[in-house]
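Q: What would this chain look like folded?
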Amino acid sequence: MFSGTKPAAVVDISVITPVYNNVTWIERCLQNVIDQQCPTVEHIVIDGGSNDGTVAILEEYARRYPHIRFVSEKDRGQSHAMNKGIAMTNGNVISFLNADDSYTSGTLQRAVTLTKDLPEPGILVGDLIIQNLDGSMSLSMPVSFTPVDHLASMLLVGRLIWFPANPSSYFYHKRVHDIVGGYDEENHYTMDMDFLLRAGAVCHIRYVHEIFGVFRKLPDTKTVQSKAEGLARGRSRAVWQNNRHLITRIDRLLAPLWICRFLLRVACNQCRLHCGKTGRLFRQVISSL
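A: My prediction, written as structure tokens:
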């Protein structure tokens, strides 16, 4: 099933939402993008053939809002759905928004502004609010963007940490896929981590201390289940092993330098959170959620 009208004449950002049987959250996801009031956004939803009422909501919203288009058909998993969505985009900048996540107020228009002068291929990264299983809120402030950052992470703790933890907190040029390819359709758990490793090797990275997204840790999501089953660390290591070729011999020789830079970034972020504007912004945003 295909539905939706012709996109706006000018599309700056293409938001892609892969979904399957998520009637609980899909309407809030669609409304979150609408509430951004960004006139140059298109919202593409790739539904895997839901049978729980998700499609009826998509049909209703696609009739009412011309920026929404959707496909509902059986697919081969989340990565396949993501690649299908990319093929449908008209924007120069891509973002993925899972059905149970959201953008903070004004994020899309801010991303349009910040990506206008971002060299291609580039990735714009912001901070992320994480809503934990117990309802508490934490702020994710990434420090790992490039292969040498991930090398430092692996040497320090043996796994990939403090990378952009959810796609609602980053935006990137569509051209990135022309260089590094699409999402690995054989990878059903860490496809975004794998993509960021490959993209970080070729992209200009712009990190801003602004809160872009909200990531909800829900009991029935793959992220939470993977961690509960004790599989998350092993999957993280597997992604690293598959991409170790991105590290050069010189990178390895300079590993102490990368570790120092990594730790300095962590320290600076903690100072911003507890003593600076970032902490005040975090408290202000969570009070409005």
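The chain has twelve helices and ten strands.
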